[in-house]
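Deliverable D5.2: sample structural annotation.
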Amino acid sequence: MTGTEIFITVGAIAISWFVLRWLIKVLKVTVSTAIKIALIVFLLQIFFGIGPHRLWEQTQFLWSQVASYLTSSQ
């Protein structure tokens, strides 16, 4: 193995390590967010009888209101 090949190998290992660490962080945040959303939906269902379908409708309505506000303010 020549000197150049060693540097390329070390560089590839370093880049792979950083990408792997980044992917693990993204996965942790994604799973954490999914658990929080599921917990909120579950609590709304148990305590208030609000199902996922009703919650989704309200979320869509909210985003349409935000979009219409943003387009009307320009």
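Annotation notes: The CA atoms of residues 8 and 14 lie 10 Å apart. The helical segments are 3-48, 52-72.
The annotation will be released with the project's public dataset once the embargo ends.
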